[in-house]
Amino acid sequence: MLTVVDHPLLKRALTTLRDRTTPYGAFRRTLADVSSILAYEALRTLPVEPVRVATPLEETEGDRLAREVVVVPVLRAGLGLVDGFVRYVPEARVGHLGMYRDEASHEPVDYYSNVPPQVADARVFVVDPMLATGGSASGALGHLKQRGATDLSFVCLVAAPEGVARLDAEHPDVDVVTAALDRELDADKFIRPGLGDAGDRIFGTA
Ligand SMILES: O=P(O)(O)OC[C@H]1O[C@H](OP(=O)(O)OP(=O)(O)O)[C@H](O)[C@@H]1O
Ligand SMILES: O=c1cc[nH]c(=O)[nH]1
Ligand SMILES: [Mg+2]
């Protein structure tokens, strides 16, 4: 299932991120704000279970999270979406998957993996700002399923129709949450209108 999050503050922030004149410091700060809004929406489906709590006046029923949360950024750009998740769920574990997209073939190349064993029993959120061809996201989700994950969501900032279709075909069980569904991929497999190379814009490497 695809959810395009609709919020005026998210729309304004996304416009700042699309703007080619936004410098990387402001880009990073704005992406941290965006990560809170996306995390808030993506975490909406977390299961809770009852717990007794004593107020200063009496005992009553409350809620606690029923499952562990694991957040897995796809390096590098996914790091920009971790803040919001760990702000709301400070006890969340964070795994890392290193992948870059080969410039000629556009296929993802794996270079790092450090995933907590608890993924098998956790609600797992894979985060990466850009879902373009879907190769990186599909590879990341496949890797986590091999490690035992069964309850996965993919959270991004900008999605291309081609990437959404690929996840739908290869990982129909995974919910996708995005701030925007853009028009198309160009000949270089960049998202149009998009925001350019997310990693370079976050880290100032262009
Ligand atoms: O859907 P795809 O076609 O696979 O493209 C999306 C991937 O490309 C970008 O990463 P990039 O390869 O630029 O690495 P970086 O984060 O280190 O910049 C982006 O952050 C995704 O991981
Ligand atoms: O538009 C795109 C496509 C892939 N990766 C990016 O960072 N941007
Ligand atoms: Mg990049």
TrEMBL record:
Binding positions for uracil per the UniProt entry: I191, G196, D197, A198
Annotated CDD domains: PRTases_typeI
Cofactor stoichiometry and binding remark: Binds 1 Mg(2+) ion per subunit. The magnesium is bound as Mg-PRPP.
Reported cofactor(s): Mg(2+)
InterPro entries: PRTase-like, PRTase_dom, Upp_B, UPRT, UPRTase/APRTase
Reactions listed under catalytic activity: UMP + diphosphate = 5-phospho-alpha-D-ribose 1-diphosphate + uracil
Regulation: Allosterically activated by GTP.
Main enzyme class: transferase
Pathway assigned in UniProt: Pyrimidine metabolism; UMP biosynthesis via salvage pathway; UMP from uracil: step 1/1
Function statement: Catalyzes the conversion of uracil and 5-phospho-alpha-D-ribose 1-diphosphate (PRPP) to UMP and diphosphate.
Family affiliation: Belongs to the UPRTase family.
Protein name: Uracil phosphoribosyltransferase
Natural source organism: Rubrivirga litoralis
Gene coding for it: upp
